[in-house]
Amino acid sequence: MGPDDHKGRSVGLRILATTDLHLQLHGYDYHADRQGPHFGLAGLAPQITTAREEAERMGMACVLLDNGDFLQGGAMGTWLANRPVTAAHPLVKTMNTIGYDAIGLGNHDLDFGLPYLNALAGHLNMPLVASNLRGPTTSTLYRSAIVSARLPSHGTPPAAALRVGVISVLPRGTDQWNANVLSGQATVQDYHKAVERAAPALRSAGAHVVVLLAHMGRQEFHTGTASDPALASLRGIDAIVLGHTHESFPLSKSACSPNSPAGRIAGRPAIMPGHHGSHLGVLDITLQAGSDNQWRVCAHQAELRENTSRPCEKLLSASAQAHGLVQRHLRQPVGRLQRRMHNYFSFAAPTQICALLAQAKRAAILDQIRGTANAALPLAVAVSAQTAGGRSGADNFVEVAPGPILRRDLNALCPHDNEIWALRVTGREIRGWLEQAAAVFQRLQACEPDQNLLHPGTAPFHFLTLYGLRYEIDPTKPLGARISDLRCDQGPLAPKDSVVLVTDHFRAGGGGGYPALDPKNVILRHAANLHTAVQDSLTGNILEEDPLVKPWNFKPSQSVKAILNTSPRARLHLQDIAHLKPEDCGTSEDGFAKIRLSL
Q1: 325-332 average pLDDT score
Q2: At a CB cut-off of 8 Å and minimum separation 6, what does 284 contact?
Q3: Per DSSP, what are the bridge partners of residue 249?
Q4: Cα(542)–Cα(335) distance, rounded to whole angstroms?
Q5: In degrees rounded to 5, what are phi and psi of residue 149?
Q6: 216 FRET partner, CA 20 to 30 A, in 107, 164, 237, 546?
Q7: Mind listing the pLDDT tens digit for each residue in 72-87?
Q8: What is the edge-to-edge ordering of all strands in the sheet holding 583-587?
Q9: End-to-end alpha carbon distance in the chain
Q10: What 3-state class would DSSP assign to 352?
Q11: How many Cα atoms occupy the beta-carbon half-sphere of 40 within 13 Å?
Q12: Model confidence, pTM
């Protein structure tokens, strides 16, 4: 279809989008062993059908795209990764049945390795696009794709088709976060150059419109340098689908009105449809032919549709066997706990859950470096505040009762079964990590008793605790000056002192915004991943009665109060933070218990 075919008229294209599904086919909460608030991709399927039918009635072409992180992140994804990929793979079956037109790649889709990803791509009926991933072992992936979107025809002439170009880029840092599976196999290139090459090439190949699947949030989309400009500055892109940060865009109902500036990013129509199947993105654009034989966007409308439908029973049935096997697997006992543990106060004080994980990591590494020169150095163990509220809501917390601990409890305690790494770092690097961790706190003021402790939208895993050290945090200070009295067992930790830092491959590579560490300083990549290390701890009784000294406490320069948003169940455990004089201040609109703390 060329401009002369439709001179003087406009053409409509509806872009349906999902992102960050994390293999959530049923919307099932495997950690709590109950149905979640929606039915995941099976719940979105009826809405996809409805949106396609609407496009047909309005005379619009329609494509369905996914923006990555579709493969990893849930218990089913981890379970399936240890089994052969066939056409009966639940994700393959579901996406082929729904009829996606193209899928972009997210950084977590690399977590299980390229052979697994390639095997999966070989069974998908649509292209799997990764424009800035290069390497001989990526032969089944596409650098870009053109998909055909039929324009409805209710008579003659025969229906024409829009040719939609698709570009997909992985975020900065992917090559570091996934170095364990990419090293020697593939490289992640500068996405700016990848888009600069792909956009004009797609136009030359006949694409009428180009859609960018950018697996990144709005901030990174606008962040750049002189040598590596922001994606926002690039030309040749007509519409954008964002993801990665688990946010939603547009945020307001007003953005759903036609041509609303709130439905654009960098002046282009854009959408970011939440995570885990929470929303379907519906982005309508109108194209008009110009005198230069190019189609251009002249109008747009962006809308997020919440996943509230009854699920597609056919899709539930297609993955029912795997779903049942995963449930059975997760109900297996793997050890015992002597005490109740929870993470309701992860941002107020070190938790026993974090201490348990730190002790397991510490034991695994100590066993390997015993008798080496590194064994004499201070040892610090980094543990993130996983599953502690944030964008996933007031139910996104973990509480485990004393007694048998099941595999699903283990998955809840450490949702990402990452590799355990040990690196030799300096006291300066340690301080840099702690300052980055303390950046989650707002700069608190003495005169505001109901200010939020955390910045709005804080992702829990951005905060970590370093066990084996002791330090104080002052949220009244500016960023970069919040850590004081940093010391190890041998005394104050100086900038040039050497430390063995135990972390995981994701964080060592700069995951979560932390300064990436030099891979040359890795002294050990442990053969066992985190789940195995924790399970060994639970079955081998290596945990001490009071595991590890609590490493940090608040010490503001002046008395301040702040509100911690946590689970309503935390009200039963306020004695755990009695030193912060907690006061119950009711419940927020989004269901969090508001607890005022005196720091």
Answers
A1: 94
A2: 12, 13, 14, 15, 60, 300, 301, 302, 303
A3: 272
A4: 12
A5: -120, 110
A6: 164
A7: 877 888 889 989 999 9
A8: 561-566, 593-598, 583-587
A9: 66
A10: helix
A11: 26
A12: 0.85
